[in-house]
Amino acid sequence: MKFILVRHCETDWNREGRLQGHTNTNLSERGWIQADELARKLKKLEIRKIVSSDLKRSRETASAIKEYINVPVIYDARLRECNFGFLEGGKKNPDGLWHGSYFNYDFTKYGGESRDAVLRRHSSLLDELSQDNSPEPILLIGHGTGLNTLLAHLKKTRIQREEYQEIEYPG
After folding, report:
1. Across-strand partners of 91?
2. Is 122 marked active-site?
3. Of residues 22, 37, 60, 81, which has the active-site annotation?
4. What are phi and psi for residue 163, nearest 5 degrees?
5. How far, in Å, CA of 52 to CA of 47, rounded?
6. Which end is more exposed in the chain, N or C (fewer Cβ atoms within 10 Å of the end residue's Cβ)?
7. What is the Cα 134 distance to its own chain's centre?
8. Whole-prediction pTM value?
C-alpha cells in the first residue's frame, strides 16, 4: 500500500505562528492558491482515494484537490492535529514555555494530547487503510505535528527511504 502525506495548506493562524490544534480555521487566500497548485501536481498521480482530517482547513484542502482528482473523499477525525489544550490560539512557544520543538512536547498538562496519543490515532487509521493492497496510492491530508509524528515513526519502524516520495510543497 502506498500513501501520499499532505499537510493542509496555509491558514491565517499558520502565518501568525499560532497553535491551531483541534480549532477549526479556514484556509487563507494564499492557502487556496497553494491548494490549487498542489492539486495540479497531484493530478499527474493515479490516486485512488483521499482520506482527510475532518478539521476545516484539511477539508478545504481536500475540496480543492477533488476539483482536479475525481475520487472519493473520506473525512476521519483520527487524522486531526495534536490537541494543544488551552494553548490553542496562542503563539507556538509563548515566553519559552517549553524547550526545543513543540513537536516532541506532551500537552496533557494543558488539557491536550501527548505525542504518543497522536501517533496511536494516526497509526490506527494507517493500519486500517493498509489492509487494502491496491497499487494506487491513497492521499492522506492532515496536519504538521500529526503527520510529522507519523512519518518519524514510519521512518524508524516500517519503511525505507526509497519507499516514499516527497513532493515539493507549493508556494
Report:
1. 18
2. no
3. 81
4. -90, -5
5. 14
6. C
7. 22
8. 0.86
| Contact (Cβ atoms closer than 8 angstroms) between residue 133 and residue 105 | no
Known binding residue 14? Answer is yes
> For the chain, what percentages of helix, strand and coil (3-state, to nearest 5) are there?
45, 10, 45
> pLDDT tens digits for the chain (171 residues)?
788 999 999 999 999 989 999 999 999 999 999 999 999 999 999 999 999 999 999 999 999 999 999 999 999 999 999 999 998 998 876 555 555 555 566 889 889 999 889 989 998 998 899 888 888 999 999 998 888 888 877 776 544 433 444 444 444
| CATH class, 3-163 region | alpha beta
Grid cell, residue 140, equals 492522506
DSSP class of residue 141 equals E
Of the residues 8, 22, 122, 153, only one is catalytic, namely 8
The answer to whether 11 is a known ligand-binding residue is yes
